[in-house]
């Protein structure tokens, strides 16, 4: 929805001139975290270059529900339960600073923000204990929450946690304002430039990039910030410390009044709701149907169920938009913000926002900028990319990586049972001679055939019939039907994709 009116007639990315292929700091990724980081550094006098593989906001920022909230589903009960109230308070403090920065920025630039209550609610009696647990965790972490037994909503509501005066917005005008300020301070943005490799060179870094037109060259940097959702570099092993999640959103025109407030269910299946102002009347946004990337067969059926739920409780609702987003859940419940490897600040990362990237993304930008410029924020230790906190995530990491091994084996073995030349009705991996695998799909009557082997670590992709895309079940890389890379940690297309 946020990107729909922007794609029409978008101007092609400007090439990166040969004499501008160096910077003090190169920021990879032009989403919320990357652009805030770039602007703050440019304000401080740094020479900053932002490299974006696709277009501004094309990743999580442009595909979010854009809730700016300190009440984040059942997040705090997980953090407090695993790390204790002190860490919970520091996490809230960082998110509060991120929230305040965003809201103040929007006020200063005349950007629309709606202040609404946020609620984590139980949609059944079975969900009440989980919502109650979140209530206690929020109080332990210093949030002024209360419990409400009833709400004026048309869907099942068995009580919930409420945090007043939170916020929601359209994130794209904010990104536009950041680009303007970045350029005013001498910073630069290059779209359609994908970073594929980073190596040390002298006291700095050499970044090997490839443009959308197929040109390849190097960019020199003193430091690098990877604000790419999941780090595109394997060093640090963040791909093994994160679980990629895909979730879906639908927007509707609804007759009559639309529910105010921002709601998300504590129990499954997740139902997330908010409204969004539009030129011809407010829209209802409903989110859910989430699943680990590449690990659910036929996610379109879950999206259809979500659509049916919305139309049941909001009679006359007419769908206007559909989109999906990718988020990364950290093994220890806390974001990873800081050096990609301990002991060196040359390459910094920001990841693991676990579907709450508006406040966490802004907080990460503040923490990264402070680190680069020599400042300090006490709460930032809770966001550290390397921390003793991670010991609490070892059991989860073992489980996630055991699943990765299972999907690696299954991906190579299962297609052998489908030997033949028939293309699946929508998309799937088939085998000719044993082990000669091929990913085949038909989209809008056009057949595509590419290698199913993910160039990241050799996993076999699966077909997502909701998004019509190939997804790697190992670490979440995604590709268009023709094999073109959509998001990493892979940095190259599937073999057989057009140049």
UniProtKB/TrEMBL annotation:
GO cellular component, one term: cytoplasm
Name of the protein this chain belongs to: FAD-dependent oxidoreductase
SUPFAM superfamilies (UniProt xref): FAD/NAD(P)-binding domain, ISP domain
Sequence ranges assigned to domain Rieske in this UniProt record: 444-499
Species for this entry: Mycolicibacterium poriferae
Coiled coil regions in record: none
Keywords (A to Z) from UniProt: 2Fe-2S, Iron, Iron-sulfur, Metal-binding
GO MF: 2 iron, 2 sulfur cluster binding; metal ion binding; monooxygenase activity; oxidoreductase activity, acting on paired donors, with incorporation or reduction of molecular oxygen
Disordered: annotated segments: 1-20
